[in-house]
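This section describes the prediction task in plain terms. A model, or a person checking by hand, is given the sequence of a single protein chain and must write out its three-dimensional structure as a string of tokens. No templates, partner chains or ligands are provided. The sample shown here is typical of the held-out split.
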Amino acid sequence: MPIQNRQRLLAFVLLVPVLAQRGLAQQSDTTQADTLATATARDSTALSVRALYTRGDYTGAITAAEASLRTGHGSTDVQSWRLISMTRMPSSAPTALRAARKMANMHPVTPSVWVALAAAAATVPDSMSVALSASERALKLAPRDPATIWVRARVLTAAGRVDEARTLLNSVTPAIAADSLIVTERAALQSH
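The expected answer:
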């Protein structure tokens, strides 16, 4: 479960009893359980879409994300991985960049949105400054999230700042280093 979603879940778990005590929350235990189940389904879907992306199944990732979004189980994380997957198809990258810009305006503190914006901008000509600033913002919002580290390294590499990308990837903890995104990016850097 991404760090931001764990924080939301913790806030939800801690806040509901306080609101109920003050008469401000009328949720039943069933409603709370449904809310928790929906949040878990969204996290699971985002992880599934990300896994498809990591395996190189970009069409599968897009299809899974779109299906999830149609059924209401989508989230900004699911939408972000959909856009990131779209960047692997050159004709879709400008569309992904436009959508990611809109999402960044709507969700300015959601790291996955900035990851999507950075990934999209890195693939569209004359957008590298956007990619660099978006990847920096993502990393500041979630410095231990493998996706933010991955996109920052990817953007630095695309900008020709390979040594900075290597330094970033070499500075992560063993748990983060084992993440598939980081493993993949490290392997890609071997050719530089």
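For orientation: The chain has a mean pLDDT of 84.
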